[in-house]
Design goal:
The protein has 115 residues and is mainly β. It contains 1 helix and 8 strands.
């Protein structure tokens, strides 16, 4: 089951959220061969035109996934509450794609005065 986190971001600002991933035994998760995707929506039922994709970069051996939004992306977001999730995927030894939701929650965008 995914971990739940509430996050606050500022409208019109660059955002970088660093996730340090660990295995159940406490060791650093090796992300070699993994892909990661993260999306932000106004609501779970929003259509695809109301979706913002995070840029995700992985530091494989350090188990770090960084989710980023540019100031241009956050400037387009209306202030208020959004939902998001982060999925990690890989292909197992049998050739099947395994998708694991690792994080989900809400993001509150605070409005910008200076635009």
């Amino acid at each position: 089951m995914a971990r739940y986190e509430e996050i606050d971001i500022d409208q019109g600002a660059d955002v970088a959220i660093e996730l340090h991933l660990i295995n159940d035994d406490g060791s650093v998760k090796n992300l070699s061969g993994h892909d990661c995707a993260a999306k932000l929506k106004r609501s779970y039922n929003s259509d695809s035109s109301d979706t913002t994709d995070f840029t995700v970069s992985l530091q494989d051996s350090d188990g770090i996934a960084t989710l980023a939004l540019t100031n241009a992306q956050t400037d387009l977001l209306k202030s208020g509450r959004y939902v998001y999730d982060v999925e990690l995927s890989y292909v197992d030894s049998g050739g099947s794609t395994i998708i694991e939701r690792i994080l989900e929650g809400t993001i509150t965008v605070s409005p910008s005065v200076t635009k």
